[in-house]
Design brief:
The complex is a heterodimer of chains A (98) and B (987). With 98 residues, chain A is mainly β. In chain A, 13% of the residues lie in helices and 34% in strands. Chain A has a single domain, classed as Folate-binding fold (2-Layer Sandwich), CATH 3.30.2270.10. In chain A, a hairpin with a 5-residue loop joins strand 5 and strand 6. Chain B has 26 helices and 51 strands. In chain B, strands 8, 9, 12, 13, 14, 15 and 29 form a seven-stranded mixed β-sheet that branches. A six-stranded mixed β-sheet of chain B has the order 42-43-44-41-35-45. Chain B has a six-stranded antiparallel barrel with strand order 46-49-48-47-50-51. In chain B, helix 6 packs parallel to helix 7, helix 12 packs across helix 14 and helix 18 crosses helix 23. The chains are: A mainly beta (98), B alpha+beta (987). The structure holds zinc ion. Zinc ion binds next to loops of chain A.
């Protein structure tokens, strides 16, 4: 069980969190201008990353806040955690990609 | 009929040991009573009593005896205790003896010594590698299953509920040390002195590990005295906690650890019954020190599974710790120096060492020469090739090996015990579970830790450091006075050479617990199951409850030989938790019975109980299904409740209804995202029924939303959906529309709700002190008023799920019960009576109102339930909108909601299949299904809802419906059976 550092509460066990799928998914709008292909890409064609993956997590049994996490899906290593609305680039503070 | 098991003779040695000879105790095994002593394990007591056969092998029912003295035991699996305390799958080697202990062998009937299934030993060809895979093909698993299940029993679970308590324990520590052998003790002392919080966990009842039985001197003290000194030093440290009879069973991410602690298994069932029997720890550790020792490997040769054939180290463990020996004439087979310790120790306690077969050509270590000096013959360059003795070892034969060729000539020796040692395997299970990598160390012929990925380290034998001197210099800060021995290196020896046909075709057991032989390994290799993960599953090697503690490395090495690969290239499977079995009771802990999935009670729960409610679990809520009056059955009660609502007035505890407040300047615009119909244009104090969709366009919930103010809405959801709906709103708010200024509050459990339904509902409320105008002109259907009812601030929503005039009264939960009683009293003259969920379900079906999750599924879109027009017309964006324009959503032949009027008096069966047009019987393509179906006392005929392809254009058609009872007919009608004009609820 991972030990995850909520950006608002600090370290808590994974059991307090829920996983929310990929981060930075762009919801295509407006509906009338979105092609079937674009919509299907958004709905179903999600990357099933083996390796470093940007994910959304929620501290659901804690403060209830959503945040982003860069995590290795193979080793479960958490590379960085950053608040909702922050970009991956700003979270990495100018480092070269993970 | 009891058959005499064995002639009893005493194998208790006249030597000092750790059993208390002043405290004799009695126990039974397979129904026969024996005596042992306090401090005995069940295994040591059975050995002392000369019980050689303790179990039958898994597939072939061959007689098996105790083969080890520890958790690696693969044969002596027993069940302990009697109903309801019975525990299956216990290791006799780890069961502590107590007075009155009742043990039975498993996998044998009527008992281990006399097993009626034993003739199946001849059935070997049936159980080759891949058996389970092959039987699925021919003739069928159903054919084999009854036989395999009967044979493969490893004990019987109790039929009665477990009377004992079990607990969870959540803890943190800075340093966890798994194992209190010499390495663990030294590490605990070192870190204890640093002042950090140390937890030392030992699976045995005593600290010391191998020091409990090895004859050695440390700093001029006996090993036992040294252990006592170290334990006393640790006890004196406040920052060190020692937990005995506890096994570190799992190592997960970020140093999350599970520990199975057995508090009361060593006591008779009724002693200290107030203490939990076991405790399951969830521990987060800063650092983990794995000091779990090593396990000796057996050698592989023909018929190496007979009772009396044991791990060499187990022999001296039984002699030195428990003062017992498995026999008087001992032969030893080895490829390393350690087995010579057994020869020396067993010689010292008076056993006759018949000889030693050592595969090494000319071993010259100090221990070897010490044995030779005693006049014991060492047959170097020899291996044990075969054994005899149908009910226990009687003799063995050895042959010379040169250049991996077995000499045809054999020498036989009579002996009753054979100790074998194929080297030692570090217990790397926890390291592997942590994600750590292993490498095969040729020097010690074992897998040792290579790469760590978490905050942990392996020390001592778990790290491949076997000799005491070396462990001290690895772990201890200060050196100890110890004897340094010259050693002869181990020589790899995994299987006999196959130059002799009889040996090649012999049964050479690799996995004793799952009955896998070297031939099975070879067969798997021939059938190309050479990837280690495939191989394991195909042969089931290492998949039994011992998780291959003694078999894995031998199997991998033999697989390597069969496929011309080095062991390192073959690799290992990943070790999985638990290291040793954890009882289900400990994992369930307190979450059993009513606490397994606790139900939520209603605010008026006590009233419901007192008024005859029959409760059911509705989405986690304990709600009245109906209220039984004397002489009524369920059907009659429901019918009476419906009649009362339709003609008078009924009262329903509607408190579980999901209630979510959405407040803020952007509340209307925000809610517009969540409903497929319009929210923003809703007028003040008005309510609207709406459907919530997911992004796939599917209907996931429904409810009524009400505008309480320009910037304030209350949304109701299904009772089970409130938390999910509120959480989903919060997710969208935080992640997608963070600019919107809204606050979402789930008030479901904070507010009670009383629903009054029926033509007299208004009259009942008017009997109470109320400042709200309830007239139809002032307070129309689907609107809300706030005011005072009997002095309490309430919100009343005029709505109906029954089709009658209805009012839902919302108030803080703490007022709900008093309000309920007031209303019930006021309603007496109007024949007010409570009704339950079942009556509500019938009435909503009569009315054609859908029940989410019953009449809808994960493919239902608004068009399918008559909501296509508002959803498609809605201009602003909402969740799922785009999906309604995908080709699948636009198809004209979708399954849509219809009413179904059954032909005949019996209701249709919910879930029945609607056969495609033109088909008269099943099997046939389906056109839909029945989703809700009831007898309708109101209509006088059964009513049902269903989904049907092209349903809208098939009104009046007679369709064929298939269920288990045959084919029924029904007429397709509009979903609403009752009061289709809505006069009653608008009245
Ligand atoms: Zn938090």
């Amino acid at each position: 069980m991972m030990n995850i550092k909520c950006p608002y509460c600090g370290n808590r066990s994974e059991a307090e969190y829920s996983f929310g799928g990929p981060a930075h998914l762009v919801r295509p709008i407006p509906a009338a201008e979105v092609s079937d292909e674009e919509w299907v890409d958004y709905l179903f064609m999600l990357d099933n990353v083996k390796g470093v993956s940007a994910e959304r997590w929620c501290h659901s049994h804690g403060c209830g806040q959503w945040f982003n996490m860069l995590r290795n899906t193979v080793t479960h290593e958490i590379l960085t955690i950053y608040k909702m609305g922050e970009s991956l680039e700003s979270a990495k503070g100018g480092e070269n990609g993970a | 009929m009891a058959r005499k098991i064995e002639h009893i003779y005493n194998l208790r040695l006249d030597v000092a040991s750790q059993v208390n000879l002043d405290k004799p105790i009695s126990f039974s095994f397979d129904g026969r009573v024996y005596s042992g002593y306090e401090g005995d394990s069940l295994a040591s007591a059975l050995i002392a009593n000369g019980v050689r056969i303790v179990g039958r092998s898994f597939k072939y029912h061959r007689p098996r005896g105790i083969m080890s003295a520890g958790v690696e035991e693969a044969n002596a699996i027993v069940q302990i205790g009697e109903e309801p305390y019975r525990q299956p799958n216990m290791l006799a080697t780890k069961v502590e003896l107590y007075d009155g202990l009742v043990a039975r062998s498993v996998n044998a009937w009527p008992n281990a010594a006399f097993d009626l299934f034993a003739p199946l030993g001849f059935a070997k060809p049936f159980f080759v590698a891949g058996f389970y895979y092959k039987v699925f093909k021919w003739p069928s698993w159903q054919f084999w299953s009854p036989m395999v299940r009967r044979l493969a029993g490893l004990g019987t679970v109790p039929k009665q509920p477990d009377p004992d308590d079990y607990d969870y324990h959540h803890a943190h520590t800075e340093i966890l040390i798994a194992g209190a052998g010499v390495a663990g003790l030294l590490a605990a002392l070192k870190h204890g002195k640093s002042g950090r919080k140390v937890l030392l966990v030992e699976q045995d009842k005593d600290l010391g590990g191998a020091l409990l039985f090895e004859k050695c001197e440390i700093d001029g003290m006996s090993a036992l005295d040294k252990v006592a000194e170290m334990e006393a030093a640790l006890e004196a440290m406040d920052n060190v906690t020692i937990v005995k009879r506890a096994t570190v069973t799992g190592y997960y991410d970020d140093n999350f650890i599970t520990i199975s602690e057995r508090l009361r298994n060593h006591l008779p069932p009724h002693v200290d019954a107030h203490i939990p029997r076991e405790r399951f720890w969830h521990l987060r550790a800063g650092q983990v020190i794995v000091a779990t020792g090593a396990i000796e490997r057996p050698l592989v040769f023909a018929n190496n599974d007979r009772p009396g054939i044991m791990l060499a180290s187990a022999l001296r463990q039984y002699a030195n710790r428990f003062g017992v020996t498995a026999g008087k004439r001992i032969f030893i087979a080895t490829n390393n120096d350690d087995a010579y310790r057994t020869a020396l120790d067993m010689h010292a306690v008076g056993a006759h060492i018949v000889g030693i077969a050592d595969v090494r050509p000319n071993p010259q270590g100090d221990l070897v020469n010490a044995v030779r000096a005693l006049g014991i013959t060492v047959y170097d360059g020899h291996a044990v090739v075969n054994t005899s003795g149908a009910r226990g070892l009687k003799s063995i034969s050895i042959s010379k090996i040169e250049n991996n060729v077995l000499d045809e000539r054999q020498r036989a020796f009579n002996c009753d015990v054979l100790g074998t040692s194929g080297g030692w395997s570090p217990v790397v299970h926890l390291h592997s579970q942590s994600g750590g990598k292993l490498r095969f160390n040729e020097e010690v012929q074992a897998f040792v830790p290579r790469e760590y990925v978490q905050q942990n380290v392996c020390i001592g034998a778990a790290n491949g450091v076997f000799e005491l001197v070396d462990i001290y210099s690895e772990v201890s800060e200060k050196a100890a006075r110890l004897q340094k021995l010259k050693t002869e290196p181990i020589q790899a020896f995994w299987d006999l050479p196959k130059n002799i046909k009889k040996i090649k075709n012999s049964k050479r057991w690799v996995d004793l617990l799952h009955d896998v032989t070297a031939s099975d390994v070879a067969l798997a290799a021939r059938e190309n199951y050479i990837s280690v993960e495939h191989f394991k599953r195909y042969t089931t090697t290492g998949m039994a409850m011992d998780q291959g503690k003694t078999s894995n490395v031998n199997a991998l090495a033999i697989l390597g030989q069969e496929t011309d690969r080095k062991i390192q290239q073959v690799g290992t499977t990943k070790f999985r938790p638990p290291y040793s079995p954890v009882s289900m009771g400990a994992m369930a802990a307190r979450s059993t019975g009513a606490l397994f999935s606790p139900l939520r009670n209603l605010p008026m729960h006590v009233w419901h109980v007192e008024n005859g409610a029959k409760f059911e679990d509705y989405g986690g809520w304990n709600r009245p299904a109906y209220y039984a009056r004397s002489g009524e059955n369920e059907e009659q009660a429901i019918e009476r409740e419906i009649h009362n609502v339709r003609h008078h007035v009924g009262i329903l505890d509607y408190s579980p209804l999901g209630k979510v407040m959405v407040q803020g300047p952007d509340a209307a615009a925000f809610l517009d995202y969540f409903y497929c119909n319009n929210v923003s244009n809703l007028k003040l104090n008005r309510a609207r029924y709406g459907l919530m969709l997911n992004e796939d366009g599917n209907v996931i919930d429904d409810g009524v939303f009400t505008r309480l103010a320009d910037d304030e809405f209350m949304a109701t959801t299904t009772s089970g959906g409130a938390a999910r709906f509120a959480a989903s709103m919060e997710e969208w708010r935080q992640c997608e529309w963070p600019h919107m200024d809204v606050v979402i509050t789930n008030i479901t459990t904070g507010w009670g709700c009383i629903s009054l339904q029926g033509p007299k509902a208004r009259d009942v409320l008017l009997k109470l002190d109320i400042d709200i105008d309830l007239s139809g002109e002032e307070f129309s259907h689907m609107s809300m008023r706030s005011g005072k009812l009997a002095g309490v601030d309430v919100k009343i929503l005029r709505t109906s799920f029954t089709g009658e005039l209805g009012f839902e009264i919302y108030m803080p939960r703490s007022y709900a019960n008093a309000m309920w009683e007031l209303i019930v009293n006021a309603g007496q003259e109007f024949k007010l009576a409570p009704f339950g969920l079942e009556a509500l379900m019938v009435m909503r079906t009569e009315k054609g109102f859908i029940h989410i999750g019953v009449d809808t599924d994960s493919s239902t879109i608004p068009d399918d339930v008559g909501f296509g027009a508002p959803a498609r017309k809605k201009v602003v964006d909402y969740i799922g909108k785009r999906s309604l324009f995908r080709p699948a959503s636009l198809r004209s032949d979708r399954e849509v909601l219809v009413g179904l009027k059954a032909v005949g008096d019996a209701p249709l069966r919910a879930g029945s299949i609607i056969l495609a047009k033109g088909h008269k019987k099943a099997p046939a393509p389906m056109d839909g299904r029945v989703t809700s179906s009831y007898s309708s006392p109101t209509m006088g005929h059964p009513v049902a809802l269903g989904v049907l392809k092209n349903g809208q254009s098939r009104m009046g058609e007679i369709i064929k419906i298939y269920d288990l009872d045959g084919v029924r007919e029904a007429e397709v009608v509009a979903p609403c059976f009752y009061d289709p004009e809505g006069k009653r609820l608008n009245g």
